[in-house]
Design a protein that fits this description.
Elements lengths: L2 E7 L8 E7 L2 E11 L8 E2 L12 E7 L6 E2 L3 H12 L5 E5 L5 E2 L1 E6 L3 H4 L11 E6 L16 H4 L11
Antiparallel strand pairs: 1-3, 1-4, 2-3, 2-10, 5-9, 5-10, 6-8, 7-9
């Protein structure tokens, strides 16, 4: 089974499925890349919903929320569940995915916005859990993914990052 991985890396990756330059406050932040493969491509890679990745995607602004080093937060933590509820209750973004290392811990989230959605990134629900970095990402990495049918239950089916397209 192949999984989709996302990471910020220092150099353009040769084997990535998709990649784009990312800037933070006008300064180059490195390359944001995605790989579709069974194992982790680089040490800091996290699993992401593969439907978010699109090598033909247009430039976007993203909110990248990452857990601090050494912090592990269960998906069923009240803060994570509330952030997911807020995302589902609000206007949809171009794409949203949680980020994870294993099947039960929240390691971060990625929210993709274009157009009017960019202003709403300032109130990213996941940034209430861990700090967010706002990145301007070039073309070739992120597409659009429809909002999920509803939250999955991590204890019984978290083999994939949220959002998922059906109840498990």
């Amino acid at each position: 089974m192949s999984r989709c991985w996302l990471a910020l890396v220092d150099a353009w990756p040769e084997r990535a499925a998709a990649a784009a330059w990312a800037e933070e406050e006008g300064e180059p932040a490195r390359v944001l890349a995605a790989w579709i493969q069974p194992s982790k491509p680089v040490r800091n890679a996290l699993r992401i919903d593969s439907r978010v990745i699109d090598p033909g995607g247009r430039p976007a602004r993203v909110s990248l929320v990452l857990a601090p080093a050494g912090v592990r937060l269960k998906f069923d933590d009240v803060a994570v569940q509330e952030a997911r509820r807020r995302v589902l209750a609000g206007l949809p973004f171009d794409a949203v995915s949680t980020l994870l290392r294993d099947s039960s811990h929240f390691e971060g989230a990625l929210t993709v916005a274009r157009g009017d959605g960019v202003q709403r990134l300032a109130d990213d629900s996941f940034a209430r859990i861990f700090p967010a970095r706002l990145l301007d990402v070039g073309p070739g990495l992120f597409g659009r993914a429809p909002p999920p049918a509803g939250p999955t239950i991590e204890r019984y089916g978290s083999a994939e990052p949220w959002p998922w397209d059906r109840f498990i």
